[in-house]
Predict the 3D structure of the following.
Amino acid sequence: MSYTREAPRGVDIVVARSDEPGLVSELPQHGMRAEEELRGLVAMRRLRARQSVASLARYRRADGAIDASGAVIDGITIAERELVGSRFAGAYLRDVFLCEARLDGTNAALAVLVRADLGGSSLRGACLRGALLDACALDGADLADTDWTGAAAFGCTLTGASFAGARLDDALFVECDLRNADLTLVGPHLGARFARCDLRGARLHPDAAMFVGCRGALGG
């Protein structure tokens, strides 16, 4: 499942290279590309992103924090790793690599993340209210005390992630890999749903959420 959103007028767009076509423009005009060709195209874009390192210096405020609210950031590896208290509210991030970064207290409310790789990062206390995550990687991420109210994650990998104290009101996880994730300290939350997720080895609170068609102890 993929989502697209037009960039607001006047918003900076950060891309790997301005002369590289985007994923949508690379698709054929007629007919459907074979599934294996699409996978190859995605792999190619990810390789380009890994090879294209860019800084967020243009978004740095006087106090040193990054404010990329509403920005469109596409196909890069972000150079910075210390991004505590940064703002990505309403931003669109696609094919962005930011592994093992410190993003504690980050505000990413209403942000759209597509194929973003945040594996091993710390997002303690981050706000993801109303955010949309599609095919993102947060394996081993520290998600303690994060706020996922109204957020939705589709096809994401969160193996070994810690949700200690996280708030999941009305959050939706669909076809996500949560193997060995720690959800033991996630208390009862109104409307949280996990559908067709892999929960094998996950540590779960029995009343944490609704589990439908999941693999694992509560998967049925």
Notes: The mean pLDDT is 79.
